[in-house]
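dude i think i finally got it to work??
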Amino acid sequence: MLQPGSPMPPLTALDAHGAPFSLAAGKRRVLYFFPKSDTPACTMEACSFRDNLALLGERGAEVVGVSPDPGAVQSAFARKYGLPFTLLPDTDGAIAQAFGTAIEQQWAGKTFASVARATFLIDADGIIRAVWENVDPRVHVQEVVAALSALDSEASNQDLQERLQEARRIAGSAMVSPFATASVGKQAEARLEALRRAEGHADETHGAVTHGAEAHGAGAHDAAPAGPVDAGQVQGVLDMLRPYMQADGGDVELVGIDAGIVKVRLQGACGTCPSSTVTLKLGLEAQLKQRVPGVRGVEAVF
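look at this
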């Protein structure tokens, strides 16, 4: 007999009404084998599945019964007891052989083919997840419902574990940010000094030497005149960069735009902390110049 973990044999058969039925992956199934229609134990089991069909359906399971009876016998059995699920006549024993439930019984000195009373719980991937042998029809449906509920819990737990693993992966990886050097004071000071030297060199070529932060208007920004700056585009870039700043406990607010100079208020930076302020300002400036036409520079206000 097939055991949990085994793949379900893909089979195609005719149901009790002669309609084709495909036993394939795609949905959960409770496939139960019973020896003979309209006998006491088989009737008790079938009616128990009938009465609990809603519970099984809530857990995504389809019930399918298999017996060696001809289709006409199964059909009469289903009508008599109002069985709303599929019954498959396995007169040649092919389904029983595939699942390992085929047995031989003796009666009145004669040997005849039959099936063991057994049930297989099959998941949507076509994998057998539970097997019951020597079924007690009085309590069997409760066992099946409990097993289906356990599968749901298992699936939820697996989904949770996958989410936790992804969260750990993200938390353990370095954040790629335009402000990656914001916390490195020495690098920030070096960038500030390089900027001042570059600005001073550019001003000398025009006959006037200024020194970055000491000059008001020119020096800290490009000297070339610029056209109107689209405030909406500027805000869009700031909104794009905001999550990176918030990840480090900061934020940015657009204060205004004056002659191509974007004025921003930087939270998490202050005038008494030049390394933090300058590094954040340079990161914003680089992104804005790259993405918004007409931007000449960024000025941090407090």
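Helices lie at 40-51, 53-58, 71-81, 94-99, 140-172, 185-204, 231-247, 274-291.
im so relieved honestly
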